[in-house]
Design a protein that fits this description.
The protein is of the alpha/beta class and 380 residues long. The protein is built from 14 helices and nine strands. The protein has an eight-stranded parallel β-barrel, surrounded by five helices. Helix 8 runs parallel beside helix 10 (188-200). It is globular and about 60 Å long. 50% of the residues are buried.
């Protein structure tokens, strides 16, 4: 989940104070990737093309160094989404996503794919929203969708796990969202996406990805996602797992009322139903929103770390979970800086490293959670 401003400015640097140099990293400290991998868990982060190709001496280059030191996998923040890959109906532009894949391959890192279809009308490119599907809209819609998924899936055979469909369920109502493609094709659009993805990426894990959460207010969202997954399984759709975005903490809304409103009993029931369908789990976009915490950064960091640890410990109780992806490693670049501002106007502290690329308590909480996790089979 990301806002339009963040998408358009995905490589921009936020105007935040920087120290002359980051605190030196303890080279004897095991990386998050190493700690996770020792338990059969893949750990990584989202990254932008600007960060992947940053010039030496820039803040982005310093950020990239943190990513390479800590992570074993990458996912494009925005560069594999339709608006980035498809400037018009006839064109594919892989240049920016290729740069991120090249960074991963050059450092022996795995690659996740996000996303083959963000089924949300706000995030379709304009040309697709306004597309003329002609006199046989279902046929033309299927052609457009399949052509996109085949081209992208075949272009990136190294992707180990794809978010095939992203955010197709309305969070308020629990019903499927409507887009130009669903109006043309009907409800079959999502099934077609998965079947086509299986053909184009036969070795990849195929996920449905969404931001239903353990917080209060997500009851309809969770129910809608379960209904969607149950339908996929009943119809024999080739889905392997659920991507749990995991933007936890203060609700991602202007009217959020608290920092910790977790419904752990209901959340476990949700996860039990998902895994009971034979589906795997992946944490795909982890961060901890601190909007409603006090101004004191020491207090904020402590509370963010505590909630992050509690959440990861719960999630890692499930042996079906073998992937944890942060949605950014530094507060300097978090998408949450430009969205739902704090009342005091202070920068947010949502990621494992601060704006000056120094490790925070959340980083140590994540390390402790990986160390405490039970071993599981090799990650994807």
């Amino acid at each position: 989940m990301i806002d339009r401003r963040a998408f358009l400015a995905s490589t921009a640097v936020l105007a935040m104070p920087m120290a002359a140099s980051a605190a030196p990293r303890d080279t004897d400290r095991p990386s998050l990737h190493r700690l996770a991998a020792s338990k059969g868990i893949l750990f990584g982060t989202a990254i932008s093309a600007g960060q992947a190709t940053a010039r030496a001496g820039t803040p982005e280059e310093r950020y990239r160094a943190v990513v390479l030191a800590e992570c074993g996998a990458l996912v494009c923040e925005n560069e594999m989404k339709w608006p980035a890959l498809r400037p018009d109906a006839a064109t594919f532009d892989f240049s920016r996503s290729d740069a991120i894949v090249a960074l991963a391959e050059g450092h022996g890192m795995k690659m996740r794919g996000h996303t083959l279809l963000w089924h949300h009308p706000d995030w379709f490119p304009r040309w697709l929203t306004e597309y003329d599907f002609g006199s046989r809209p279902a046929v033309e819609g299927e052609r457009v969708l399949q052509a996109h998924i085949r081209r992208v899936g075949e272009h990136y055979p190294q992707v180990v796990s794809w978010d095939v469909i992203n955010e197709a369920v309305d969070a308020d109502t629990g019903e499927r969202r409507e887009t130009s493609l669903s109006r043309a094709m009907g409800p079959e659009v999502l099934d077609v996406a998965f079947h086509t993805a299986r053909e184009a990426a036969p070795k990849a894990r195929l996920l449905y990805n969404d931001y239903m959460s353990w917080e209060a207010g997500h009851e309809n969202h969770r129910a809608g996602v379960l209904k969607l997954l149950e339908g996929f399984k009943t119809r024999g759709v080739p889905i392997d797992g659920l991507g749990v975005q995991s933007h936890i903490g203060s609700g991602n809304a202007d009217n959020s009322v608290g920092f910790d409103t977790a419904q752990e009993t209901e959340w476990r029931r949700f996860l039990d139903e998902v895994t009971g369908m034979g589906l795997t789990l992946e944490i795909t976009e982890f961060d901890v929103h601190d909007k409603n915490l006090p101004a004191d950064p020491v207090v904020r960091d402590r509370e963010v770390a505590a909630l992050g640890r509690r959440y990861l410990d719960l999630m890692l109780e499930y042996p079906q979970l073998d992937t944890v992806m942060a949605w950014g490693m530094s507060d300097r670049y978090t998408w949450l800086q430009g969205r739902w501002p704090r009342a005091d106007g202070l920068p947010k502290r949502t990621n494992p490293y601060d704006a000056e690329f120094r490790a925070k308590p959340l980083r140590e909480a994540m390390a402790a959670s990986f160390q405490a996790a039970a071993p599981r089979p090799q990650a994807v």
